[in-house]
């Protein structure tokens, strides 16, 4: 896999968009397919990695780990590891992540208004 050039036009456009558009900034933090779903499941309380994997069976381990790490870096998710064997790690929303609750709630309302039926 080739590395992405930091000074490419695409990266420059992305940085410019993030700096000037609030929607682009938010999407850089919670965008993509899996991040909003992970956040949605964490709304109901802390979850272990295995619980998240069970709740979102279609996500690959690589993507789940990657998104959890990115959301930790963005201070949306808190990772708490207890020093026991086997390791006991839980993920929960940070105060910053908790502020996304109204946005995620509105997404749920929007889906419900369009006759969303869980399968």
Give an overview of the whole structure.
There is one protein chain. Helix 1 packs across helix 2. A 3-stranded antiparallel β-sheet has the order 1-3-2. The protein is built from 7 helices and 3 strands. Helices cover 55% and strands 12% of the residues. A hairpin with a 5-residue loop joins strand 2 and strand 3. By secondary structure, the protein is mainly α. The radius of gyration is 16 Å and the shape is globular. The model has no long low-confidence stretch (mean pLDDT 87).
Secondary structure blueprint with pairings:
Blueprint: H1 9-20, H2 22-30, H3 35-42, E1 47-48, H4 49-55, H5 61-73, E2 77-82, E3 88-93, H6 95-98, H7 101-113
Antiparallel strand pairs: 1-3, 2-3
Helix pairs in contact: 1-2
Features of this protein?
55% helix, 12% strand, globular
How far apart the termini lie comes to: 36 Å
Uncertain runs: none
**How much strand content do the residues show?**
5-15%
Radius of gyration, CA atoms, in whole angstroms: 16 Å
Main beta-sheet strand count, sense and barrel state:
3 strands, antiparallel
Order of SSEs:
HHHEHHEEHH
What is the number of strand segments? 3
Given the helix and strand composition, which structural class is it?
A: mainly alpha
Helix content: 55-70%
Mean pLDDT: 87
Strand order of the largest sheet: 1-3-2
